[in-house]
Amino acid sequence: MQPRALTDAAPSVFWLDRSTRPPERDPLRGDTTADLVVVGAGYTGLWAALQSLEDDPSRSVMVVEAGTVGGQASGRNGGFCSASLTHGLPNGVDRFPDEVDVLQQLGEANLDGIEATIRRHGIDCSFERVGGLTVATEPWQLDDLDELAKLDAGHGVQSAVLDAADTRARIDSPRFIGGLLTSGATEALVDPARLAWGIASAVEKLGGTIHEATPMEGIERSGASLVVRTPHGSVRCGAVVLATNAFPSPVRKIRRLVAPVYDHVLMTEPLSAGQRTAIGWEGREGLSDSTNLFHYSRLTDDGRILWGGYDAVYHYGNRIDPSLEQRDVTHHLLAEQFFDVFPQLDGLRFTHRWGGVIDTCTRFAVTFGTAFDGRVSYAVGYTGLGVGASRFGGRVALDLLFEPDAETLALDFVSKGPLPFPPEPVRWLGVSLTRRELERADRNEGRRGLWLRLLDRLGLGFDS
Length: 464
Known about the structure:
Elements: E1 30-39, H1 43-55, E2 61-64, H2 73-76, E3 80-82, H3 89-95, H4 100-120, E4 132-136, H5 140-154, E5 159-163, H6 164-170, E6 178-182, E7 187-189, H7 192-205, E8 209-211, E9 218-222, E10 225-230, E11 233-242, H8 252-257, E12 259-268, H9 273-279, E13 286-289, E14 295-299, E15 305-309, E16 313-314, H10 328-341, E17 350-360, E18 367-371, E19 376-380, H11 386-402, H12 412-415, H13 426-443, H14 450-457
Parallel strand pairs: 1-2, 1-11, 2-8, 4-13, 11-19
Antiparallel strand pairs: 3-7, 4-6, 5-6, 9-10, 10-11, 12-15, 12-16, 12-17, 13-14, 14-15, 18-19
Helix pairs in contact: 1-7, 1-11, 4-11
């Protein structure tokens, strides 16, 4: 245990805790109109707004956000920007075997599109195509990495298996006994908050309007139009994109499809030159381990290490509350695990500790749908890998409204949704049991017990 390392850690999000954070935007006051209203100023909503304005500059677009731009999952994550739309290739092969190669191509084109948009609009968000490194920390995981490399090769993904020496030559830890290196063609890093702020700025430069501190209170029909109601005003519009992530939605189907899970993160102080030498990490790859309850880690621009994952927590009744973002037992466990992986960094301190809500669904990848006779669309359920996939999610949400003949809408990935979560208390019991059994599998050389095997047979298993 390293409690002293957390003594000075601020209970706030590192990415959002900056003097360069843009000033807050005014809330909506009064009644107005727009062609398109986007609810939610996270990645999905911002990408939908930006792409809509680029598609049709004459379309008036308004974004309403209950909090601040990028203030929830989009500004709290690790900044891993993956080409995968399916939460990893194994999950895609399991669930969409007939479409996985097309989805892989769409995902790589989507990642290219993100980079091109960043350059076109001059968004300063430290986008880096540094690739990824998945490490084995137990012997049984080495076979899994070999299998994943074969799967990658069969679907055109560039990766290479590394032995212990080559893995530790890239990032040195006594726990690392092998790795799988993935190229920058499919894996990038980004500063998540600055990406959200940059997309929002681009939306406004193209004529879009963003109102913060403007929660949606409801949607209702009004003749041929829709009306989005907020506390101090309303917007009459022709179409709505719901980009509400894990937060409650007026569309009941979304509530059944999505469960909010809290993920927790630590950020260190900047490493000294000696500490950087001790761990290497010259390639700046995004790092994760290959356990079921996995950790993820990366370097920042100023030489800090972000460390998160492992102890995802679901609270009974889909509970979401700011008080749940700070969880001492989880942050102390993460600190202990960090120094177990990097004992040579003993004495390093954490400057920030935080948590945030992930929108998970039973297929562990984004799902789509419509409501109000096709005038409302949504994209939710990214399960923690939405930094890249959210641009595609925003694209599909727009196509559902304005481009009914778009080729992507014919994909099963888009047209067929996941099984809904059961109601409480079965929902809480199922999520809790699954998490416990995943932890047990990690202790038992990856062997999956009866419950996990049942989920696998039902098409609900998760191992990516």
